[in-house]
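B., you asked whether I could sanity-check this one before it goes into the benchmark set. Here's the sequence:
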Amino acid sequence: MIRRCLSRTVPFLGFLGVFFSLILLTGLSGGSARADDMNTLTIVRNYGLTIVTSTGRHAFKVEFVSDEQARARGLMYRKSVPEGTGMLFDFHREGPVSFWMKNTYVSLDMIFIRENGAVARVEHDTTPLSEKVIPSGVPVRYVFEVVAGTAKRLNIQPGDKVVSEYIPASR
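And here's what the prediction gave me:
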């Protein structure tokens, strides 16, 4: 009897441990946790990033990724990227970087950003599922991916300023 009871209780306790760990992780991150369609946890921050252009200040809610595995995955397998959101990649130092659209179903704009928060280059309307390499062209530390058309609509140009707590030199 005790053995049967434990066999039902232990998995339930394991579930509770994971559940409360996610709640704790979410509370400490200042955002919300969610599992995307590939069963990996992404932290979505409640605060974000602002791009200052000739048309004004434009705020975004960001997913911030800074480890190699998360950078490699990026926005792959996503079926949509909502307006006003994006993914910010941190490479921890300035240097040339390259991206591709393999397994990425949504056309994106890629905004290549220097360590000081200045926009270095914009790649407009990338081709979904393409394995064509998209280089930064110049040394950058960050790349911000948003749904295609955003950069043209907001007139995001090289030299514009990106301000975020994720980009310390920008503040």
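One thing to flag: The helical segments are 2-29, 68-73, 150-153. Otherwise nothing jumped out at me.
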